[in-house]
Amino acid sequence: MEQEHLEPADLVRDHTVYACVMGSRAFGLATEASDTDRRGVFLAPTPLYWRFTKPPTHVEGPADEQFSWELERFCELALRANPNVLECLHSPLVERIDGTGRELLSLRGAFLSRQAHGTFARYAEGQHRKLAADVRTHGAPRWKHAMHLLRLLMSCRDLLRTGELTIDVGEARDELLAVKRGEVSWAEVDRRMARLAAEAADAADRTPLPAEPDRARIEDFLVRTRRASAALSS
């Protein structure tokens, strides 16, 4: 039976296949004041695509600090090595998952490729420019953002070195939180960022990651999932 229009909140509530906690709590950087950032993936029922008005590619909310992507959009971004999306697949704090979500997680490695170096590096360069502008304007960067940029650069370097994405900062927690508290000079933070970027570039030359992600494998998963959704709705 063809489905009627669903509100964005309904898609998140009733059709989420994977949901996790991200941000400081997933990175091992949480303090008592940390928010709980939730990210998720929903599967819009296939019959909704048969109408002129298509389902949304993403939904903000309905809860505070909550953001979800439709499965196809999520896969597109992950294939492009979008840092925020790739990290969602590696959160240690999974709150909701079904069979489709478990298959998505089983495909984590198929999304990883050497392209990650370029996308992570471009994202880091953009964030660094913003921090440097804050220093010029206000005399100091936003220290929380500086901490997270250092974390991202560490993650990128280690991904290129090992072929695996790990988002928990582990033993680097104390030194990163010291940056967040403003206890490390901007000059030193800037030096660390430059060193990490250079280490990532060096690792990119000998990374075990493949040149391209396994797009065919991901597309097969998406097509099978869409067909199964259509069959359930018939």
Mean pLDDT: 95
| Fraction of residues in β-strands | 5-15%
- The class by helix and strand makeup works out as alpha+beta
Shape: globular
Question: How many runs of DSSP E, i.e. beta strands?
Answer: 5
Task: Please work out how many helical segments DSSP would assign.
Answer: 11
Low-confidence stretches: none
Backbone CA Rg: 19 Å
Q: What is the H/E string?
A: HEHEEEHHEHHHHHHH
Please list the strands of the largest sheet in the order they lie side by side: 3-4-2-1-5
First-to-last CA distance: 5 Å
Helical percentage: 55-70%
Query: What kind of sheet is the major sheet?
Result: 5 strands, mixed
What does this structure look like?
It is a single chain. The protein has 234 residues and is α+β, with helices and mostly antiparallel strands. The chain is 55% helix and 11% strand. It contains 11 helices and 5 strands. Strand 3 and strand 4 (66-70) form a beta hairpin. The model has no long low-confidence stretch (mean pLDDT 95).
What's this model, at a glance?
This protein has helices at residues 8-15, 24-27, 71-79, 83-88, 99-106, 108-111, 115-138, 143-162, 173-180, 186-204, 215-233; strands spanning 16-22, 37-42, 58-60, 66-70, 94-97. The chain has 234 residues and is α+β, with helices and mostly antiparallel strands. Helix 7 (115-138) packs antiparallel against helix 8 (143-162), helix 8 (143-162) packs antiparallel against helix 9 and helix 8 (143-162) packs parallel to helix 10.
